[in-house]
Amino acid sequence: MRNRLQILDLNGEVLNPDFVSDVLNNLDRFTNHLQDAREIVEKMGDGNGYKPEKLQAISIDFFEAWVESSTELILHIGRENALEFLTLFRPYWFMTWPESSFDYMDQMGLSELLENTKSNDASWEWQIFRGESPSLVAQGIQGFSWSFDKHTAEYYAKRHQDGVVLSAKIKWDDVLVILDSEDEVVVSPSWLKSVVAGNVST
């Protein structure tokens, strides 16, 4: 979710073509990674050719790039491919998510919640927030990256003129990944319901 960039792209996200780190160099590698991940998950589903270590290696590379700059990663590989990566990793979250995700979940009490509550329990919901451009909200365009922390969402909202803070409620099955950086939770925009736009606190 971190973004080190300085100019805005057409989607209102910040972009800096001069910023390249090692993990963001040669993002074309994810074209091969995606095909490999598809094949591995398909074989794992069939119970054949079980290669968790290779899927883990791909997920580590993907999430390192995502944390460095999800904006550049999505711009390079496309929204649909980014979503497919996340969806492929999700059933195997216990071995594809970064170790820091589990530490964060423990600190927030989310691990205990998962142990003690069924995911289909109607009373079990998390509130999440996202800072967004009003023009994108008007077009019905929503990003992947949300936060459990409203202050983080307000920070991103303030990057936009008259930016707004979106809030929504999700269940465990809606989550694609939880990351400790900026209390991030990644959710497919198509899964979100009852999104509410509010003003930024002054």
Provide a descriptive summary of the structure in words.
By secondary structure, the protein is α+β, with helices and mostly antiparallel strands. It has 2 domains: 90 residues, no CATH class; 100 residues, ADP-ribosylation fold (Alpha-Beta Barrel). 44% of the residues lie in helices and 16% in strands. Helix 2 packs antiparallel against helix 3. The strands form 3 sheets. It has a 3-stranded antiparallel sheet with strand order 3-5-8. A hairpin with a 5-residue loop joins strand 1 and strand 2. The relative contact order is 0.14.
Element layout with pairings:
Blueprint: E1 7-8, E2 14-15, H1 29-46, H2 52-77, H3 79-89, H4 93-96, H5 99-108, H6 110-116, E3 126-132, H7 134-138, E4 145-147, H8 150-157, E5 164-170, E6 175-179, E7 184-187, E8 196-198
Antiparallel strand pairs: 1-2, 3-5, 4-7, 5-8, 6-7
Helix pairs in contact: 1-2, 1-3, 2-3
